[in-house]
Specification:
The complex is a heterodimer.
Chain A: H1 2-23, E1 24-30, E2 43-52, E3 58-69, E4 76-77, E5 88-94, E6 99-107, E7 112-121, E8 129-130, E9 134-138, H2 146-177, H3 185-188
Antiparallel strand pairs in A: 1-2, 2-6, 3-4, 3-5, 3-7, 7-8, 7-9
Chain B: H1 3-16, H2 19-40, H3 48-83, H4 86-91, H5 96-125, H6 132-160, H7 164-178, H8 186-189, H9 192-200, H10 202-215, H11 224-246
Helix pairs in contact in B: 1-5, 2-3, 2-5, 3-5, 3-6, 3-7, 3-10, 5-6, 6-7, 6-10, 6-11, 9-10, 10-11
The chains are: A alpha+beta, B mainly alpha.
Amino acid sequence: MKFKTLIILTSLGVLLSAGMAKALTIDLQASRHNPALPQMGDRLSYHTVIRNDGPQTLDGLIVWISLVQVDKGKEQPVDLEDWSAHKAEAKTALMPGQVIETDWPIRLIQSGLYRVVISAATRTGEALVTSPFADFSVRQKPVVESQRVLPVAFGVPLILSLLMIKVWRKGKRRSAGGPRPIRDARSSA
Amino acid sequence: MSVPTQIARKEAGELLLNLRGLVWLSAVSLSLSAFGLLLVSDVELSLLDNAQVVYDMTSIVTALGGLLALVVGTDAVAGERERGSLIPLLLAPVARSEILVGKLGGVLIAWTVMYVLALPYLWAVGSTGQNLLDGMVVLAVLGTPVVLTFGFFGLTLGCWLSSARGALLIGLVGLILSASPLLLGPSLRQSAVGRLFDAVNPFSAAVNAFDAVIIDSQALSVQGGHVLVAYAWLVIAFWFARSGFRQLGR
């Protein structure tokens, strides 16, 4: 009897949580100002609309952004430390029908194929609520430009070498000339 | 032209117009060129690494500048002594303080030459322009006291020790110890001893300020603590140099 009650209560809890999870929806859209072919250094922005469609207030809402790299052989979650200053947002309560609109700016640090997703969790809900994925690719941009580095890397030592040769030749000419004759005051007179 | 200016020009002239000095400057430029070429060949660098390479370049320049200043500072007294030109200089009817200022001016000119030499390299590797100008400024503001500190300590060691080689050797050990933050990993620097060393080390003050300004985009105006440590060491080093030079030959 007790076991039966436990099963019923657990099922109710799961159903309630699932219901709360379904009540929360996240819509993710890329900003229309985003560049069509972004490259390293560009900034992208994503807009989310988080809505509580359920009949109950959702307490302790936390929403955060996640980024994964999906290049073949380089699949990995991305540490957003350098990519975004706005990584999460918290709200004490989301009333039924209430909507939160948030912008998620990202600075593109590394080239590759990426998927961005917004996740949300509440204090009591058991299931994680996620937005659909938004995909983007970042084009490589040379970090160190060879047309700037090469002239300097070869030019400066070359200039110094030429200067060295000049100084060395001057010194050689001097030593070949021998010591300067001492002027005799009487003969010059 | 005043006596200190004449002495400083003579010291700097030995660096710029002397074959030995030019060989040194060429070696410095070749080191910086090698670093630049190494970066060009790396295709896996991310955008963040551009600030990182500017930071690396400023740190390398500071370390090489410290080495240059140490050699010039040591040579200013110990080298003159070994060449037999120190006593005639001290016997000249010129105030010792003027000779000292001239010698220290020589160290400053040597560092200025090196700084100017480093600018095209900084410009070349900082292609995205991220904090490039700030990097140049922070190198001048924090790199200068650190480099001069080593020059002044080199001069002090030259006053204290009779052998130029011995003075240079001790100075090099001090420089390597001070520049160790460039070699140590962040975990080692986070230990209690590492943090204490970082707090008092002028080289750490400089590289931490480089890190904050170039990589973390912080303003130079909030680097007061680092600036204070670096300039405090400069004052201490100047005091030692003055004290050592006053007692020279007495």
